[in-house]
Write a structure and sequence with these properties.
It is a single chain. With 390 residues, this protein is an alpha/beta fold. It folds into 2 domains: 237 residues, Aspartate Aminotransferase, domain 2 (3-Layer(aba) Sandwich), CATH 3.40.640; 122 residues, Alpha-Beta Complex (Aspartate Aminotransferase, domain 1). The protein contains 14 helices and 13 strands. The protein has an 8-stranded mixed sheet with strand order 1-9-8-5-4-2-3-12, sandwiched between helices. A 3-stranded antiparallel sheet has the order 10-11-13, covered by helices on one side. α6 links the parallel β4 and β5. The longest helix is centred in the C-terminal third of the chain and has 19 residues.
Length: 390
């Protein structure tokens, strides 16, 4: 049977296995078309429904839709009054948005180390606490739940906030608790590569009425009334702004896509899990390759990250290049924060980042998406094995 090639996102016809392929169904397209036919294209009933469906799924009291996960993190910090003179602990291995949001709020990110599983190290958090620490932003990297209970315990003892960065974590539960419900606030991303997508978009969850009220107003310039309230009685322009806000809304079109995608989340995550388990089974006994540990079920299987160690016989960078030549796209999640010029200049960087420095030279993310076929995975596996230097 001839191998059926997928289109590469970047229009490169030499690619046999793309890194990621979005899962957009016929129902998704119908939902978008129907939303386009409504008179209210933003801040309307579809967004409210998406928020309700999302809060039901994660079992949180409040869910507030926003323009992306960066604005979610920024609004969360603002809602807790965090700003100039405050410090916020952030892991070294995460997307730069986690630290950018802290800088946007006027606070200082404190960059700390990670564990073997790429998640924030509790010991490194403890070593970097100061009188100025106001919050910790743990990231559930690649969808694997971090030591969140331990982190919340430390935060509670020190009277500091926990904002969970759940950009990778939708659908990850531990003991029936969804990520984002352990700390004070949880922030989600619906970027195209995420487990569900609204193309661009994000969500904030919290159990605090006060936080949710602030965020609802602040995402829409700080206006004290919703669009519906303004036009249903009185003078529509007669509203107040108690403090300046932002333009971080999520529109009806993307909310419609979110509702449609959310219906499939369990199925999509199961497909991801199956693909991860297949990689694990096939790559389990190869010297120099360390596979992700999926011993517990608390992951959303967002990324499949290998460690390419010295005894593999070829460096991670060379392997990346060789796989690309064979038409296989891989990536690295992520270049550590301490390597960026802006972070060096504006953040406090922990003296000990040994683990993240080591991991950065070893980690490689393999192609992973719900529709990936065993044939595509076999191409990746075969290419990996053929490059091992005996």
């Amino acid at each position: 049977m001839k191998f059926k090639k997928r289109k590469d996102s970047f229009g490169d016809s030499t690619i046999n296995v793309p890194f990621f392929v979005p899962d957009i169904s016929r129902d998704d397209k119908i939902a978008i078309r129907d939303a386009l036919n409504s008179l209210l294209l933003t801040a309307g009933p579809i967004l409210s429904k998406f928020e309700k469906n999302f809060s039901d799924f994660v079992n949180s009291r409040y869910a507030i839709g926003v323009s992306n996960a960066t604005s979610a993190l920024h609004l969360s910090l603002k809602s807790l009054g965090i700003g100039i003179g405050d410090e916020v602990i952030v892991p070294n291995i995460t997307f730069v948005a986690t630290a950018n949001a802290v800088l946007l709020a006027g606070a200082t990110p404190v960059i700390v180390d990670v564990n073997d599983d790429l998640n924030i190290s509790v010991k490194s958090i403890e070593n970097n606490l100061s009188k100025k620490t106001k919050a910790i932003i743990p990231v559930h990297l690649a969808g694997k739940i971090c030591d969140i209970e331990q982190i919340c315990k430390i935060a509670h003892k020190k009277n500091i906030f926990v904002i969970e960065d759940c950009a990778h974590g939708i659908g990850a539960f531990r003991k029936n608790n969804h990520v984002g419900t352990f700390g004070d606030i949880g922030c989600f991303s619906f970027y195209p590569t995420k487990n569900i997508t609204t193309i661009e978009g994000g969500m904030i969850i919290t159990k605090s009425k006060k936080i949710s009220e602030y965020i609802r107003s602040a995402r829409n310039h700080g206006i004290t009334k919703t669009l519906t309230q303004r036009y249903s009685h009185g003078l529509p322009w007669d509203y107040d702004i108690i403090e300046p806000g932002f333009n971080y809304r999520l529109d009806e079109i993307r909310s419609a896509l979110g509702i449609s995608q959310l219906k499939r989340i369990k199925k999509l995550n199961q497909k991801r899990k199956n693909a991860c388990m297949y990689y694990n089974k096939k790559l389990n006994n190869i010297d120099g390759i360390q596979i992700p540990n999926y011993s517990s079920n608390d992951s959303s299987y967002h990324l499949y990250i290998l460690r390419i160690q010295d005894n593999f016989g070829i460096s991670r960078n060379d392997l990346f290049k060789k796989l690309l030549k064979l038409g296989i796209r891989t990536s690295v999640h992520y270049k550590p924060l301490h390597e960026f010029s802006a972070i060096k200049k504006l953040a406090n960087i922990s003296k000990n980042l040994e683990k993240s420095k080591l991991l950065y030279h070893e980690i490689l993310s393999l192609p992973l998406y719900p529709q990936i076929t065993k044939k595509e995975q076999d191409l990746v596996i075969k290419a990996l094995i053929s490059h091992k230097h005996h």
